[in-house]
Amino acid sequence: MDNCVFCKIVRGDIPSEKIYEDTEVFAFHDIHPAAPVHFMLIPKLHIGSLAEVEDKHRSLLGEMMVLIPRLAREQGCTDGFRTVINTGRVGGQEVYHLHIHIIGGGDRLPVMIPHPR
After folding, report:
1. Torsion angle, CA of 99/6/20/61, rounded to 10 degrees?
2. CA-based radius of gyration for the chain
3. Cα–Cα distances in Å, from 71 out to 41, 53, 102?
């Protein structure tokens, strides 16, 4: 996708602070970190959102999930981390290229979804 910000990052058209790359995925630090550790893992293949995932993406998504804990540890998340996939307008997605936020480091993260009492 020519106008996709994350596709441009993968191609090197937009600079990023890369932490990992292989033939299928790319990981880089978020430019507006929400915690001491905040990076994103994206597929190099343009997939607009999690809502567009199909059976043919099963292996790619599995590889991403297996990679996350290793990258999180390497970035300093030794006592846990949060993974977030915002999907669509209601889910708060801002860049329409599937991406997984990995957030952690430091103190316990705040509750995302309050529990009713």
Report:
1. 30
2. 14
3. 9, 23, 9
- The per-residue b/e assignment along 28-49, b for 16 or more CB within 10 angstroms, e otherwise, is bebeeeebebbbbbbbbeebbb
pLDDT tens track for 91-111? 999 999 999 999 999 888 888
Percentage of the chain with pLDDT > 70?
A: 100
CA–CA separation, 106 and 43 (whole Å): 27
First to last CA, the chain: 45
Residue 99 appears among annotated catalytic residues: yes
Catalytic pick among 46, 99, 101, 115:
99
The per-residue pLDDT for 116 is: 79
Statement: residue 114 has pLDDT above 90: no
**Polymer length of the chain:** 117
Q: Are 97 and 7 in contact (CB under 8 A)?
A: yes
